[in-house]
C-alpha cells in the first residue's frame, strides 16, 4: 500500500474528503491515507495551527491530498495554504481546465493547463503601511530568475511531453518593466531550447478577454503567482465552476494535491458541496503515483454520471447531496 497524507481541512473539506476516501475504498485503490489535521478546527481544539506530525507525515510520504484550510486571522500565519507551498518549495501550481461532458457552459472543447508560479510574486507577504495614519501602504512583488526559470521550464516540458505546440506566457511587462520584464525575458530564453513550440506573449488584461472570447485556442498558459490565481478561477468558471476544478502543487520531490476552491464556509456542513473538484484532484494524484488503471476507472464512472446529468450537486444545477453523488459514483465504478 502506498501511503499518502490526507489533510481534510476546514469548511466543506471534511465532507469532500470523506467522499474521496469512500470512493477510493470502494474502488480498491492501493493507497492508504494517513490523516493529519490543520487549520481552524485543530487550532480551536489544540491551540496549534499545524501540528508537527503533519510535517513529518508529508516529509515521509512525499505526496499529500489536501482539502481547503482556513487560517484564523492574527495567528501568526497569513495563509496556511501559501505557507505549505513555500515551506516545501512547491513551485509549480498546475491547474488543468477541461470541458466536461454533460456540463452546460458557454463553451465547448476547452482543454488547457495553467502553470502558476507558486512561491514568489505578490504572495511573499511583504506589505506595510508607509505612514502612521495608515493612509498609504505598499506591497512588494518579488520575481527571481530562478523562480521564473523553473515554472516556465515545467510548462515547456509539459507541452513537449504532451505533444502540444504552443505555450502562452502571460505578463504585464509593459507596465512592470523590471519584474514582469524579467519573467518575460526568462521565457524568451527558455523558448530557444524548444524550436517545435510556438511562444505567445499575452498581456494579462488582454488574456482575460481572449479567454472569455476564445478559450479553446489555448493549451498551456504559464504566468506569475497572482495572475495565475485570478486566471485559474476565471478558467474554472468557463468549464462549470469551482466545484469541478482540480489542482496540484509540485516541487522537486514533494507534491501536494488540492482543489482550486477554498473552504466554502457558506455551504459547509450542509451535505451540499460538490466533491468532484477534490475527486478530480485525487485522480490526478493517482496518475502522478502511476496508478493509472484505478485513476481511469474512477474517472470513467464520474464522466458517465456527468453525461447522464441526473445526479448532480446544486452548483451544477442538480439537487443531489454530496453523499448521494458519492454513492452514485461508487455504483458506477
Ligand atoms: P476561502 O476563504 O477558504 O477561499 P471562500 O469564501 O473564498 O473561502 P471558495 O471556496 O473560494 O470560498 O468558494 C467561492 C464560492 O464558490 C462559495 O460561495 C462556494 O459556495 C462555491 N464553491 C466553492 N467550492 C465549491 C464546491 N466544491 N461545491 C460547491 N460550491 C463550491
Ligand atoms: Mg476563495
Automatic annotation (TrEMBL):
Keywords: Oxidoreductase
Enzyme class: oxidoreductase
A GO molecular function held by the record: isocitrate dehydrogenase (NAD+) activity
One example of a Gene Ontology biological process annotation: isocitrate metabolic process
Pfam families: Iso_dh
Annotated ranges, domain Isopropylmalate dehydrogenase-like: 3-329
Listed EC numbers: 1.1.1.41
Annotated family: Belongs to the isocitrate and isopropylmalate dehydrogenases family.
Protein name: Isocitrate dehydrogenase (NAD(+))
Organism: Sebaldella termitidis (strain ATCC 33386 / NCTC 11300)
Amino acid at each position: 500500500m502506498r501511503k499518502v497524507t490526507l489533510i481534510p481541512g476546514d469548511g466543506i473539506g471534511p465532507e469532500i474528503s470523506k467522499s474521496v476516501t469512500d470512493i477510493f475504498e470502494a474502488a480498491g485503490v492501493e493507497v492508504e491515507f494517513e490523516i493529519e489535521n490543520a487549520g481552524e478546527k485543530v487550532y480551536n481544539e489544540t491551540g496549534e495551527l499545524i501540528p508537527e506530525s503533519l510535517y513529518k507525515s508529508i516529509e515521509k510520504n512525499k505526496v499529500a491530498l489536501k482539502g481547503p484550510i482556513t487560517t484564523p486571522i492574527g495567528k501568526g500565519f497569513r495563509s496556511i495554504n501559501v505557507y505549505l507551498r513555500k515551506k516545501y518549495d512547491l513551485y509549480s501550481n498546475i491547474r488543468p481546465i477541461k470541458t466536461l461532458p454533460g456540463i452546460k457552459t458557454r463553451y465547448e472543447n476547452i482543454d488547457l493547463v495553467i502553470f502558476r508560479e507558486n512561491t514568489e510574486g505578490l504572495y511573499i507577504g511583504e506589505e506595510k503601511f508607509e505612514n502612521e495614519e495608515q493612509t498609504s501602504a505598499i506591497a512588494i512583488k518579488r520575481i527571481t530568475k530562478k523562480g521564473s526559470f523553473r515554472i516556465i521550464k515545467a510548462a515547456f516540458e509539459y507541452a513537449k511531453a504532451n505533444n502540444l505546440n504552443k505555450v502562452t506566457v502571460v505578463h504585464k511587462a509593459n507596465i512592470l518593466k523590471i519584474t514582469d520584464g524579467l519573467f518575460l525575458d526568462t521565457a524568451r530564453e527558455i523558448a530557444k531550447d524548444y524550436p517545435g513550440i510556438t511562444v505567445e506573449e499575452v498581456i494579462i488584461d488582454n488574456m482575460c478577454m481572449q479567454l472569455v472570447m476564445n478559450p479553446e485556442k489555448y493549451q498551456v498558459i504559464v504566468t506569475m503567482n497572482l495572475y495565475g490565481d485570478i486566471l485559474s478561477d476565471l478558467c474554472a468558471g468557463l468549464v462549470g465552476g469551482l466545484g469541478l476544478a482540480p489542482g496540484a502543487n509540485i516541487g522537486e520531490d514533494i507534491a501536494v494535491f488540492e482543489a482550486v476552491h477554498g473552504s466554502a464556509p457558506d455551504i459547509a456542513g450542509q451535505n451540499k458541496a460538490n466533491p468532484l473538484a477534490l475527486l478530480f484532484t485525487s485522480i490526478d494524484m493517482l496518475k502522478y503515483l502511476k496508478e493509472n488503471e484505478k485513476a481511469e476507472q474512477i474517472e470513467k464512472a464520474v464522466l458517465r454520471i456527468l453525461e447522464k446529468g441526473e445526479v448532480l450537486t446544486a452548483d451544477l444545477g442538480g439537487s443531489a447531496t454530496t453523499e448521494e453523488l458519492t454513492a452514485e459514483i461508487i455504483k458506477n465504478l
